[in-house]
Design a protein that fits this description.
The complex is a heterodimer of chains A (589) and B (379). Chain A contains 20 helices and 24 strands. Chain A is an alpha+beta fold and 589 residues long. The longest helix of chain B has 13 residues. About 2% of the residues of chain B have low confidence. The complex binds adenosine-5'-triphosphate (ATP) and magnesium ion.
């Protein structure tokens, strides 16, 4: 489509006004134009953090020579004709504003050569002067050169931050777009030095490796889902497994149809999905790309287009949440340390191993004794690995801890254990409270409605004052869902008749659940909060001395969990110190 | 202090008492045993502050006195000593004790006897009762397992004892099941007359752990005299004195609330039933919450369990006596512990509803019953 002037009434409905605030804004507009032109390679060159010069070159389809003057005219665009076209919009730009805005505050020069043209043409624009055109020799594509940003707007220029800060902002823009377009090779140079380079092979993981390192890239889990149904939402990306998380949200990123965006409901979906899987105030790494029909997304809500709105906000939220839970849930909750090459067991085989293997406390005790003596082979030979049960165990399966042999209790709180065999043998530290809390949480979660309710031989009286009575009336359904049954036994007492099976100190806990501030939110959320509460109270406490048998039993319970790696509050339950890590600490390599 | 005693006798004394010595204690002195020699008699005392046991034996005492020695060490050493006369004597240096036999000489640094917590004297006045050691052991063994281990309700970690002349009953519950055993002693009935000072001692709640120790200590004794001073249970036999702090508080009246009539009563072979339940519950081993389902009806009992991801199990048993049909489920551990503690050939299973208490008993032995609450199951 050729560049045309938008009809006035269309221009008025999409006009955003000033969008150039700093060098990074220029970089964003130019990179978006390159992407809209179908570029496979985008090179961004900066001088002085972009304050002196910004040059963006691409190998896209270029601009026909006769259209060059129109490109810098306000509300002239090749991407939109009528307002309704927004519903079919596939490009990042649509306002026809960007280049004009840049030209208004900087010295702009555009060189462009469509592939079919024999030579390129250069257009120079200076605010207040008529554009000048001249031929230029160049490869197909477009190169936009922006110099002396805000040379004519001293107030703006004064507000620019240091070269370092502006550079950082530019880098951030390039990174965000590189992430949104793994199929495009990006290169960022500052004063001739390459700062960033992505391969453009279509693999998001390679982009992540290029931006933030191999280690992070390797630790992330892939997510790919196509939600069927009316929404036709495609979801792909990389997410961090449950575990430690990060202190900030900077690596929670979403792109919608190739556009890096901010969206509250996406963020909420993500945080909910990681609830109970990350410690409080920690955040996941989350690089999610959503593809959905343009009709479903409104991009015309913010001048920088960074904020989008979904037509079916709730459906998008729900789909993303569910997809994340699937990606994080089940047998998948591996700590980053778990090698990805491990063989996955079928759920049945797993379940059996959990029920059978670790039950024998005597064995655990024997293992404690043996651990002191037996020299283990430093490297497991393939034969040793293939033979016998031990070898099988060493394989382990992704997402579950190997069978752990307790060695000692540290500070009355951490169980020091050995796990795995051969190469995979490693030292583990298990937080006894966090681990047991996880077990109880899942046990409460798994018990179906009405199941796991243990009636009492004799009801337990719970004193009732008016506050408690009110709490009882309001919270009864929630308490019953947890497995408590009670009935009123006169004006000032309640008879506790049944408790969740296996619970300790149920009477006091029940009273506390009446006295405490009730959790807020939706039913499921409140139930989850209370399950976590009950789990916390029932679990072995930090500081409780545990005999070897009790340690083995706790580890066995814990390792049967679906999400063993964190407690319900998201703190880590276990830390693995691998052979490699030990070797590193002892400077063995 | 200076005395002589044969190695096997001293070894046994130390072995029994050091069972009480706590592994860790806030009071270091309790890691020791108190030795006290006096006029041809040696006494060894150990305590964990909740209970204490004193065992005595005749010994050749040359000089009376006391010493506290590390319990585990002393017990280990004496056990390994040759079977000959051992001599123990206090030394010049403070608190040291010399342990010697021909060719051997050990000097052991001890602790101060003044710091050792002394057991209270046996209350000679007031009500007391006498029973046979093996009867006491029996009531404890058959109720011990049903006591609670949950410190949240400390009173339930005890066993409730009711002692009357010629009769003792013990009851334990953890809130989910109740075990109750009664023993009537023929011996006192035979004598036809009450011994002096014999009286009922009602409602003592003794920590189950302490009673277990007492049962072990006194099992072989012909006569154990029991008394209470309100804070402690005292037991005295031929050669031992034991005392245990009582649990304070009101023991719940659990029996009052139970069904007085059972609508369904079935009789089964106890061992067959237990074996079937063990096999079926093996499937859910380690998953306490997986209930064991029992379907009584159509001339048979079906025992079944299913465990998600693992499989399903089902066994059928013919009853010895059939009753009304009933479907009920139990925590497998609670259920099977009851079956195990019954010793008879047959078991009577009495129920009054899928959510009401069930009773297990031996149709030939009215002295014991076990009450267990069912579990609610989904669907
Ligand atoms: N790198 C490029 N390659 C090819 N064509 C380009 C390039 N940059 C700009 N153009 C052309 O110039 C036009 C104007 O670009 P400009 O960025 O001002 O507006 P836009 O991208 O259409 O809308 P927006 O203001 O939303 O960015 C575009 O519509 C496009 O046709
Ligand atoms: Mg544009």
């Amino acid at each position: 489509m050729s560049i045309r002037r938008l009809p006035r009434e269309v221009a008025e409905r999409i006009a955003a006004g000033e969008v150039i605030e700093r060098p990074a804004s220029v970089v964003k507009e130019l990179v978006e134009n390159a992407l809209d032109a179908g570029a496979r390679r985008v090179v961004v060159e900066l001088e002085d953090g972009g304050r002196a010069a910004i040059r963006v070159s691409d190998d896209g389809r270029g601009i026909a020579p006769e259209e060059l003057p129109l490109a810098v005219e306000r509300y002239a665009t090749s991407k939109l004709e009528r307002f309704e076209d927004l519903e079919r919009l596939r490009t990042l730009g649509f306002r026809g504003e960007a280049l004009a805005s840049v030209a208004a505050v900087a010295l702009l020069s555009i060189e462009s050569r469509p592939p079919q043209a024999e030579a390129g043409r250069r257009l120079r624009v200076r605010a207040g002067e008529p554009p000048a055109l001249e031929p230029v020799a160049m490869a197909p594509g477009t190169r936009v050169d922006v110099r002396d940003l805000f040379h004519n707007v001293p107030a703006r220029r004064a507000h620019l931050r240091s070269a370092r800060a502006e550079l950082l902002a530019c880098e951030e823009v390039v990174a965000a777009h590189a992430l949104a377009h793994p199929g495009v090779a990006f290169r960022l140079l500052h004063e001739g030095r390459a700062l960033l380079e992505t391969p453009g092979d279509g693999e998001m993981r390679h982009v992540v490796a290029a931006l933030w390192g191999e280690e992070l890239a390797g630790s992330l889990r892939e997510l790919r889902e196509e939600a069927p149904g009316p929404l036709a939402l495609k979801l792909s990306g990389l997410v961090s497994p449950p575990g430690l998380g990060r202190a900030s949200r900077v690596l929670e990123r979403f792109t919608v149809n190739g556009r890096p965006v901010e969206n509250l409901s996406l963020r909420m979906a993500a945080e909910e999905a990681y609830r109970n899987l990350l410690p409080a105030h920690r955040h996941p790494v989350l690089l999610l790309a959503l593809e959905l029909p343009p009709l479903e997304v409104d991009v015309n809500v913010h001048p920088t287009k960074r904020v989008v709105r979904f037509l079916h906000e709730r459906a998008v939220h729900g789909t993303v949440y569910a997809a994340l839970r699937r990606a994080l849930g089940g047998a998948e909750g591996a700590p980053p340390a778990a090698a990805s090459s491990r063989v996955r067991e079928t759920p049945g085989a797993w379940a059996w191993r959990q029920v059978y293997a670790p039950l024998d406390a005597g064995e655990a005790v024997a293992a404690v004794a043996a651990a002191g003596e037996a020299e283990r082979p430093a490297v497991a030979t393939p034969a040793a690995n293939a033979a016998g049960k031990e070898g099988e165990e060493g394989e382990g399966d992704e997402g579950r801890p190997p069978r752990l042999r307790p060695l000692a209790q540290l500070h009355g709180t951490y169980l020091l254990c050995l796990g795995g065999v051969g190469e995979a043998e490693s030292l583990w530290l298990v937080d006894q409270h966090a681990a047991d809390e996880r077990y109880w949480f899942e046990r409460l979660e798994q018990q179906a409605e009405g199941e796991g309710v243990q009636p009492l031989v004799a009801p337990l009286p719970v004193p009732l004052d008016s506050r408690r009575r009110a709490a009882w009336e309001a919270r009864r359904p929630l308490l019953e869902a947890l497995g408590f049954r009670a009935e009123e036994g006169g004006p000032s007492s309640l008879w506790l008749r049944a408790i969740p099976a296996g619970l300790r100190g149920a009477e006091a806990l029940f009273a506390d659940l009446l006295d405490e501030e009730a959790p807020g939110g939706a039913w499921e959320e409140r139930l989850r909060a209370w399950r976590a509460r009950v789990a916390c109270r029932t679990a072995v406490r930090a500081g409780d001395p545990l005999e070897p048998e009790a340690q083995a039993a706790l580890l066995a319970r814990w390792s049967s969990c679906r999400q063993p790696w964190t407690c319900p509050h998201g703190r880590p339950a276990a830390v693995e110190i691998s052979r490699a890590e030990l070797a590193r600490r002892f400077l063995r390599r | 202090m200076r005395f002589r005693l044969a190695q096997p006798a001293l070894a046994r004394l130390l072995q029994v008492t050091s069972r009480i010595v706590p592994a860790r204690s806030p009071l270091p002195i309790t890691s020791g045993v108190l030795l006290r020699a006096e006029a041809g008699w040696l006494e060894v005392t150990a305590t964990d502050l909740e209970m204490s046991a004193t065992l005595g034996l005749p010994a050749t005492v040359e000089e009376g006195g006391e010493a506290v020695l590390p319990a585990r060490f002393l017990s280990d050493l004496v056990r390994r000593a040759p079977a000959t006369d051992l001599e123990l004597s206090t030394q010049e240096e403070a608190l040291a004790v010399r342990l010697a036999w021909p060719d051997a000489d050990f000097v052991i640094q001890g602790m101060s006897p003044d710091e050792f917590p002394r057991p209270a004297a046996f209350p000679e006045e007031g009500p007391a009762a006498t029973l046979r050691g093996r009867d006491l052991a029996r009531v404890v063994r058959r109720t011990f397992f049903a006591a609670s281990q949950d410190q949240a309700r400390p009173i339930l970690t005890g066993i409730l004892l009711e002692i009357a002349p010629g009769r003792i009953t013990a009851l334990a519950t953890d809130g989910f099941r109740i075990a109750r055993q009664e023993v009537v002693q023929e011996s006192s009935a035979e004598e036809g007359e009450q011994e002096e000072g014999a009286a009922a001692i009602g409602g003592l709640v003794v920590p189950a752990r302490s009673l277990d120790v007492l049962a072990g200590l006194g099992e072989a004794e012909d006569e154990i005299r029991l008394a209470s001073d309100g804070n402690r249970l005292h037991a005295r036999g031929n050669a031992f004195h034991f005392q245990a702090s009582l649990l304070q508080g009101r023991y719940p009246q659990v029996l009052e609330l139970l069904p007085s009539r059972f609508v369904a009563s079935w009789q089964l072979g106890r061992e067959e039933l237990l074996a079937a339940c063990e096999r079926v519950s093996l499937l859910g081993a380690g998953r306490e919450q997986a209930p064991l389902r029992l379907q009584f009806g159509d001339g048979r009992l079906v025992v079944a369990a299913d465990a998600p991801e693992l499989g399903r199990a089902r066994e059928e048993l013919p009853p010895l006596e059939e009753g009304e049909p009933m479907e009920i489920a139990f925590n497998p551990r609670f259920w099977m512990e009851g079956l195990k503690v019954l010793e008879g050939e047959r078991v009577q299973v009495e129920m009054s509803g899928p959510l009401s208490a069930a009773r297990l008993r031996d149709p030939e032995d009215g002295s014991f019953f076990y009450i267990v609450m069912p579990m609610r199951t989904a669907g």
